[in-house]
Amino acid sequence: MRPRYALDWQHKGFPATAHGQEPSELAALGLRVPDDVSTPFAVLRTSALQRNLEAMAAWCRERRVDHAPHVKTTMSPELMRMQLEAGAWGTTAATAWQARVQIELGSRRVMIANECLDEPGLRWLAERVRDDDGLEVLLFVDSRHGIEVLERVAAAVGGTRALGALVDLGVHGGRAGIRDPEQAVQLAEQVAAAKGVQLAGVGGYEGVIAGDRTADGLTAVRTYLQRLRDLALRLAPLVQRPGGGVVTAGGSLFYDLVADELGGLDGMRTVIRPGCYLVHDHGVYARNTDDADHTRPQLRAAMEVWARVLSTPEPGLALADAGRRDISSDAGMPALLAVVRDGRREAPDPGVAVTGFNDQHTFLSLPTDGPTAGLVPQVGDALVLGISHPCTTIDKWRAIALVDDDGTITGAVHTVF
Question: Among 29, 79, 109, 381, which is disulfide-ready with 90 (CB 3.0 to 4.6 Å)?
């Protein structure tokens, strides 16, 4: 049974009329953004979420790859369940704690796409795998020390079911992962010989190679994925996982290249791990999405953060009531999508830009002369901000409203960061 979850004063922006209500009860209240909520206020548009969910699921089926979305993006029980119900093969975590959360919330297969030396966390996972025949946990390794940690955990927990290990192939200057393929083969042999550990395949992460889909970036990513493919072919005979091996890569920018380069390997299941696709954005992912490119799913930005202009203390400057406590800037400043005045949502003047944050303020530069081609924010206006990089905005909210395309609140999701 899922625990009852009700909104209250801990959930930023929701009005008192919503307190004590479960998410399924919100639609009956008829609350609308921005008039009935406090700003700043984060929303997810349900039409965009559903479109993205269906588009990615269909794309994976067509390309014959499996999807284990990286749930760290949202850490939301409701959004994770949506992805599993849409056919996700499993879920991805970065830490043993995240894996535990996902298992507690109902995931039956979790991949820790990271090196994990957290022995208390690993023991909990190993105990669950030992006691639950339907649960699988896979994790990355890149060192003999990592194998020894898994062996100690297995010896302490006992039982006949093992955690699965994926040999992690990295890139020079990147994150974790063995740089040399020959050393990766040697490590795979050590994993296969270890007690209580199962060699499940190979993995990696190409997102550290390039931050945009430039020609040079695409070439560099493909070169790395070809190295990962070659390693997977070499290790396939050593794989001990029932049902065949796993080869996995694919963040939210280059998963199509992963399908191209790693798909169709004999005895190996190709698993991609994009997590940001569900929410998408108006920044880093939007600028790397080409609606004319039908080789990838057509995604739409689902998240907005609403703010209100508090002050225009000098020419060319406006201050709004959202800040770095509410919205991210690690992958670029948010885009000003609209200005809402007297109940009308209109396009802003193109000369208006978000230039910086304090903890509780957004700084906007305003045009000071010449004709305007849209609304210039003034005190009292509501602003609609589009985020760049969903991970570091979502983690600032304990609950996020679901809205229809008219701005009516139809529900909410909560997060467990």
Answer: 109
φ and ψ at residue 48, rounded to 5 degrees: -70, -40
Cβ distance 274 to 70 under 8 Å? yes
Pick the CATH number of 64-277 from 3.40.50.2300, 3.20.20.80, 3.20.20.10, 3.30.870.10: 3.20.20.10
Closest C-alpha among 95, 110, 5, 17 to residue 409: 17
- In words, the CATH class of domain 16-45+302-414 is mainly beta
Structure tokens at 117: 């030396």
Amino acid at 274: P
Q: Are strands 317-320 and 362-365 parallel, antiparallel or unpaired?
A: antiparallel
What is the distance between the alpha carbons of residues 188 and 173, in angstroms, rounded to a whole number?
22
pLDDT cut 90: percent of the chain above it: 95
CB burial readout 327-362, b (16+ within 10 A) else e: bbbebbbbbbbbbbeeeeeeebbebbebeebeeebb
* Per-residue pLDDT tens over the stretch 259-317: 999 999 999 999 999 999 999 999 999 999 888 888 899 999 999 999 999 999 999 99
End-to-end distance of the chain based on CA atoms, in angstroms?
21
Residues 56, 342 contacting (CB under 8 angstroms): no
